[in-house]
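look at this record:
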Amino acid sequence: MSATQKHLSRTLKIEDIGLSFGNLQHIRPRIVCRDGFSISVQAGEYMYSAPRQNGLPAYFEVECGYPSARPPETWAEYFDGEWYPDTIWGRVARLWNARRMIKYCLLNKKFTPKLSDRVRKARRYLHLRDCSTTSVYAYVPIVLVDGLIDLHGGLDETATYLG
């Protein structure tokens, strides 16, 4: 059994809340690797996973979110958003594509008359940091998740389950 499958089965917690539409599945803890890398891996009825059911013993694809470092380029197709290269040109392209939203935030006096409020809204699009660590990856094959865990030294069970 793979490290991801073990994590999903070990952290499964379903609670009967007495509503007609079903049971509540709790969010699983983040996977922490031996080198400190961490990522959220979820699977279930309301997640981007296959199959989309709660409490199954095995999943083929899972939802991964908010990794602590940029995943490999093979994850680009599962990224929820535009994947930019992690270079200066990728950062310039991100700003160039956000220029309309930045202009809209700064010039829209109708909803936010104070300039400081408009700058605060525009700041969200002006950042140069990498967006690959601030979003969700949908329907990621288990094999890729296991490869990422192995790349970072394997699963640190103490930090993942006790920390």
Observations:
- The mean pLDDT is 85.
- The chain has two domains: 3-82+132-162, 87-129.
- Residues 3-82+132-162 form one domain.
